[in-house]
Amino acid sequence: MRSNVLLDKCNWSLLRIFRVIVQEGSLNKAAIKLFLTQSAISQSLKRLEEQIGDPLIVRTGGKFYLTATGEIVFEASMMIYSQLMDYEERLNTEKNSLSGTIKLLVLSRIESTRYDQLLHDFHEKYPLVDFQVDVLKSKEIQQLLLQKIPALGIGINQIQHSKLNYQTLINQKYALFCSDKHALYTENIETIDQIKGHGFISFQSEQLNDPLSPLSEVREKILKNNRLLVTTNNMDEVIRFIKNGIGIGLLPKNIIEKSSNYHLFKQLPPFPYVSIIPISLAWHKDRELSLVEQYFINDLRGVFNVNHSKK
Questions:
Q1: For 132-157, what is the mean pLDDT?
Q2: Sign of CA dihedral 269, 271, 272, 278
Q3: Each residue of 253-308: pLDDT tens digit?
Q4: Which one of 73, 106, 134, 189 is most buried, by most CB atoms within 10 A?
Q5: Do the beta carbons of residue 27 and residue 38 sit within 8 Å?
Q6: CA-to-CA distance for 52 and 54, rounded, in angstroms?
Q7: pTM of the full predicted structure?
Q8: 41-65 burial string, b = 16+ CB within 10 Å, else e?
Q9: What pLDDT does residue 206 have?
């Protein structure tokens, strides 16, 4: 066996397969154990022997025996396996012992499968971490974060403050909808100018009230030819009034598309959507994050494929 070959050339995957071959006593049993084909097991053994430069197994009479080199390599693989198991146990102990509170200030009705999965996976990894969640308006979230309260905020931040870090999580697409109980449901509407004489259900939120928002522009255009019929700050009420044919309104497309009553709604122009409103994670630049917050942000970056902060 050439010097330093185990250090310089061997990889753990091949050593792991060799360890299982020896422990199971046959290539076929090792293949079953590792959910691989016998051919793949044989090729791995061949590659390991080529890397080391010596045969590891001698086959005779339907059985195999370890060569002197094979004995050394098997002993090395068992030592590595034992050390890795020890490190794995220590890592799991550290994760399972991580505790603390994550305070989240969030916008209502955040619809995201990835966000839901993040919460589930984070709890599975760190079961001792608890959450405190307050549902607020985006403006209130930003004001509280600027006071350096120990919290992370998730909301709409069309105007970004220089003292906060921002990371975009969801690009929420808004569109104009009616329902099957509304007169426009059966009409062929190609432009927003064709929508006249109907009631508009207004969702009073930051993205609509901001005069610079594209949603506000479309809202004003609709109201030139239609009547403001219902005003509410609750999205569920907007959906209720639209669903019952009382009027038309602007809603996030993903919320309607995930609804069990999706077939009852019809999207109206402009197409493919009115505007994209980003939902972002935010926290104060000068506040020291707790360990659990750092873990949460790191996992969140992985789920949403975020690499850096937006200043």
A1: 93
A2: negative
A3: 999 998 889 999 999 999 999 988 889 999 999 999 998 999 999 999 889 876 54
A4: 73
A5: yes
A6: 6
A7: 0.64
A8: beebbeebbebbebebbeeeeeebe
A9: 53
Quick one: 20 exposed, middle or buried, by C-beta within 10 A (0-12, 13-18, 19+)? buried
Q: What is the DSSP letter of 160?
A: -
Collect all residues with Cβ–Cβ distance below 8 Å to 219 and sequence separation of at least 6.
Answer: 200, 202, 208, 250
Residue 113 makes CB contacts below 8 A (sequence gap 6+) with: none
136 and 106 in contact (C-beta within 8 Å)? yes
Query: Is the model more confident about 10 or about 300?
Result: 300
* Mean pLDDT on 165-169: 92
| Encoded tokens for 219 | 């809202």
Q: What is the C-alpha to C-alpha distance for residues 112 and 24, in angstroms, rounded to an integer?
A: 46
Which amino acid is present at 77?
S
Task: Tell me the residue type at 171.
Answer: N
